[in-house]
Amino acid sequence: MSEYNQHNDQRELDAEPAFNRFIDAAMNRRNFLRATGAAGSVAFFAATPVAQAVAGSMDKSTLMGFKAIPASTADTIVVPEGYVAERLVSWGDPLFANSPAFSQSNDSKAQEMQYGDNTDGMTFFPISDTRAVLVANNEYTNNEYLYPHQGKNISADDVRKSQAAHGVSIIELVKKDGEWQVNVEGRLNRKLTAYTEMEMTGPAAGNDLLKTAADASGNKILGTYNNCANGQTPWGTYLTCEENFNGYFAASKEVELTDEYKRYGVKDKDWGYDWWKHDDRFDIAKTPNEPNRFGWVVEIDPMNPNSTPKKRSALGRFKHENAALTINDDGHVVVYLGDDERGEHLYKFVSKNKYKPGVHTSNLNLLEEGTLYVAKLDGKEGEIKGNGEWIELTFGKNGLTPENGFNSQAEVMIFARKAATHVGATTMDRPEWVAVHPDNKHVFCTLTNNKYRGVRDTQPVNVANPRVKNPYGHIIRWEPKNGDHTATTFDWDLFVMAGNPEVHDDLMAGTPNINKDNMFNSPDGLGFDAAGRMWIQTDGKYSNKDNFAGMGNNQMLCADPKTGEIRRFLTGPIACEITGLAFSPDHKTMFVGVQHPGEDLAPSHFPDGGDSVPRSTVMRITRKDGGVIGA
Ligand code: FEO
Ligand code: CA
Ligand code: CA
Ligand code: CA
């Protein structure tokens, strides 16, 4: 998908009467509750006809041409009638002509030459009509499947294998027999791991907080890992986003857990990867600054297999989800960024210099220098719309001064979360992917869920995150002032609150564009195709019971941003999440990631069937009639 330089469609979504009617109805639902003082009670039934009336009058989408599919609990991928879903590449598949074939007992050397695990965000870079590069994140590993011993007594090579299964896979694709396929002969094929050399750039480069015994420069960092979602630039590079980096650190002896460690969740115990047992970098008793070297956005040039990836410290250090990059009308590069943790924040980077179309080299370091902002949202209680401002995170401004514990721009970036709190940023319900509509004026972000909202004092309910214990998540939309992405103010509303209208009759039922046929929870992956269809991928509860009854396995839906209509397009296998989305330029092939089928030993054997080990897989989706996906 291409989220940049598309100024071709200047439709003003907020001027659409159909969508306004829908938003009004959503607010009527809530206002009704407030007026009657009946939040959470049966009185909400009375509001349901309002919702139904609006749902009935909602303009039928002309953007979506496929027939919605039902929820599913089957151990397979289901797509609409007339569509085909086939496997492109799975964890452990060869990346090179001499790569060993997949086996659960493959060692680290084999894994270095194979597709990584837990496929996540990805981008399709076309080279010609028949040649392309697919760059995809490999977020993490599941010990229960990575090793035949399921993670008991992890050896040094086991750690190396896990580190090789993380990172980013760069794969050449070739179009053969009318289908995009993996080309193991491709000279651009490459596996970036948790030990590939990278360079730190921007304000934090060379700072004392990044120096370690192995790297006195504070610039030469080994590896990237927990690469969640992604972004791409119009100058042909790929952005990979480091998310839950904290879960890999432990301490071999007692250490002081500083406020900075705590704010990023670094503890003396890891999440079970055991890297620290064989790699001192991950033992904070031995390498206390190593956690500061992760939690960044990394820029990769997929067209040069010898290039050194660059960590972009100007985009701040937090648990990055994706990097939604757009070129503002004046040429500034703007990157919207979510920090996926309960009660964390939404950020925006604006480059100092401007993008010059077609001038490749002058664009290469645009992400090195600029200004980072964090969002503060306001509005009237009881409404699901309002205004907001972007607050600058610059050393010396807004109280980011030595008196308040910030000694340099480097420290503001390394501890961006602390800076955000200091300036009064709004706590959000886990910001996951951000996506910019092809009109380049409207921006959307999935807020996946938040069990602490309204429960922890630090995360009170607010206008933009209005539900206590929000188990379903919502999608917020904003429009920068005058359509200028560098502006410091914006207007926002909620495009959808997910919910279950079969189980609940209050705000937990969701907005009126949620019904029994399109229910889902925990929106996560998000992206637009060139026609403006919005694709929503879920990483939610797949119990299919209680709050989640009728929702089935994780899924992908398609939405029409003009009318608010949402249709289910795809359902995934057992215990997977659907994450990662890319299109060929003609939009006749869509690539979708199936991550961790069978997690926690759930009974999945996707995609090989039989009694095989389940494997994360990128699927290739096409139409039998060769048409555009979703149309
Ligand atoms: Fe890796 Fe927030 O999902
Ligand atoms: Ca995600
Ligand atoms: Ca998620
Ligand atoms: Ca995931």
Summarize the structure in words.
- The protein is mainly beta and 631 residues long.
- The chain has helices at 17-36, 48-57, 108-112, 143-146, 156-165, 259-263, 360-363, 409-414, 416-422; strands spanning 83-90, 119-126, 131-138, 167-176, 179-182, 190-192, 197-201, 220-222, 227-232, 238-242, 297-300, 310-312, 320-327, 332-339, 346-354, 370-378, 385-392, 431-436, 443-447, 474-480, 489-497, 523-528, 534-538, 555-559, 566-571, 577-583, 590-595, 617-623.
- Helix 1 runs antiparallel to helix 2 (48-57).
- Bound molecules: MU-OXO-diiron and calcium ion (3 copies).
- One calcium ion (CA) is lined by residues 432, 448, 524, 539.
Overall mean pLDDT score? Answer: 92
Q: What is the CATH H-level superfamily? A: TolB, C-terminal domain
Quaternary organization: single chain
Main sheet: strand order: 13-14-15-16-17-21-20-19-18
DSSP summary: helix tally: 9
What about the largest sheet? Answer: 9 strands, antiparallel
Poorly predicted runs of 5 or more residues: 1-56
As a percent range, the share of helical residues equals: 10-25%
Overall geometry comes to globular
How far apart the termini lie comes to 15 Å
Radius of gyration from the alpha-carbon trace, in angstroms: 23 Å
Top CATH class: Mainly Beta
Number of strands: 28
Which cofactors or ions or other ligands sit in this model? Answer: MU-OXO-diiron, calcium ion
What fraction of the residues are assigned to beta strands by DSSP?
A: 25-35%
Domain count: the total is 1
CATH architecture label: 6 Propeller
- CATH names the topology as Neuraminidase
